[in-house]
Amino acid sequence: MLKQLRSAAALAAALALAVTAAGCGASSSSSQATSSEVLGPAANYDYQNFTYSQGLTDDGHWEGVRALDYVTLPEDYAAIPLKQADIEPSEEEIQTQWDNLLESNRIQQPVTGRAAEDGDIANIDYSGTVDGVVFTGGTAEGYDLTLGSGSFVDDFEDQIVGHNVGDSFDVTVTFPEGYGDSTDEDGNVVTLSGKEAVFHVTLNSLAVSVLPEATDAWVEENFGASNDLHTVADVDQYFHDSLYSSNLTNAVVDYLTENSTVSSIPEVVLNYQVCSQLSYYNSYAAMFGYETLDEFLAGFMGYDNADALLADTEQDVLNSCNQLLIFQAVAESLDLAPTEAELETYAGYAESMGEGYVHLLALQDSVLSALRDGAVVS
User: Fold this and answer.
1) pTM > 0.85: yes or no
2) Phi-psi bin for 343: left (phi > 0), alpha (psi -120 to 50), beta?
3) Which is nearest to 165 in space by CA: 112, 117, 121?
């Protein structure tokens, strides 16, 4: 499939969800802020019981909140002035899309007449033993291994280099200390940590990964039926239109947020954003077997605890709150409500996340559509 650019729907979803990506690059330094001055400690929030429709009415508005009481919109918000040069995609942007498309559709070109080299894709059968015992996970047939990728235990791939298709040979490696145990065919534990293993390998074939050539025939074969794109020119236009749409959406949102004023953030909105972020990470803590959120953040994210996470992501949370309020303010000012089509886009979320959440996302689509249609590009 063609690489899809950020749509209005995706942007609306991003605004409605927590700032879940914020803070992923936490500093390894131990000198972290202990608590957010604005958000306070994580203990103030009941994130364990968070639901995505809490604090929302069935029509996707914040309970008890008239956003226009908190937000001053720019006078030209319904006809945002934008420059064509800031919206029109550059040749470099379009080429980047082409590069990404070709990269994601690499093809394997068979190699003949030479021995295996680093970078080749070696199709191999292998069977490994430790102390003469075959162990679970040490046997495979028809496995594609890129030589030099470091996918297998150190020295495994190096010992395939130089062999020819059809060769059968032994590869001897040592599992690193701390490597997990395996089992034999009877279920008995086979210790691999620090152990020497011998793999009998057969080299079935060699190939190299190459970029396809962007031709009309290639476009027709890969995207004619699925995307109704039949020529290189069609793909160029597709990328242009997608980038233009994305640039327009981003420019509209940037202008609106930069030129609106938010006097304060209602507690229901702030609580929602903080709880959604903490709930998100808490679900991962449970998934990875951590007993507490703090243990997960310390062991997996580089934060001392949840308070440090909130301190580091405070501004991101506040920015998201502001955007949510600004969007509702536009909806109030223009008397907007989601269309049936916009609601249908998110109908699949209703059972797990509630009608309020569905309407919130659809309402933001409605706002974005109105702002984009009203924008004055010159």
Assistant:
1) no
2) alpha
3) 112
Q: Which long-range contacts (CB under 8 A, 24 or more apart) does 115-118 make?
A: 115/161, 115/162, 115/163, 115/164, 116/147, 116/160, 116/161, 116/162, 116/163, 116/164, 116/203, 116/206, 117/147, 117/161, 118/147, 118/148, 118/161
If 0-12 CB within 10 Å is exposed, 13-18 middle and 19+ buried, where does residue 41 land? middle
Kindly tell me if the per-residue pLDDT of 2 is higher than 70.
no
Spatial distance between the Cα atoms of 193 and 130, rounded to a whole number of angstroms: 11
For the record, the structure tokens of 286 come out as 């449970």
Query: To 5 degrees, how large is the angle CA 353–CA 358–CA 364?
Result: 135
Q: What is the reported pLDDT for 37?
A: 82
| Residue range 121-149, pLDDT digits in tens | 999 999 999 999 999 999 999 999 999 99
d(CA 226, CA 134): 45
Instruction: Collapse the DSSP code of 41 into the 3-class scheme (helix H, G, I; strand E, B; otherwise coil) and give the result.
Output: coil
Is 25's pLDDT higher than 80? no
Which one-letter amino acid corresponds to residue 129? T
Strand ranges (E), 84-195: 107-110, 121-130, 133-146, 168-174, 182-183, 189-190
Q: What is the pLDDT of residues 314-344, one digit of tens each?
A: 999 999 999 999 999 999 999 999 999 999 9
- Give dist(CA 181, CA 175) in Å, integer: 11
Question: Which amino acid belongs to residue 111?
Answer: V
SS3 (DSSP) at 72 = strand
Q: What is the pLDDT of residue 300?
A: 86
Say what the pLDDT of residue 23 is.
34
Spatial distance between the Cα atoms of 15 and 305, rounded to a whole number of angstroms: 25
The set of residues, in sequence order, having a beta carbon less than 8 Å from that of 211 and lying 6+ positions away, is 102, 103, 106
Euclidean distance between CA atoms 4 and 242, whole angstroms: 8
> Two tokens at 241?
């239109």
Residue 16: name the closest of 370, 349, 377, 369 by CA: 349
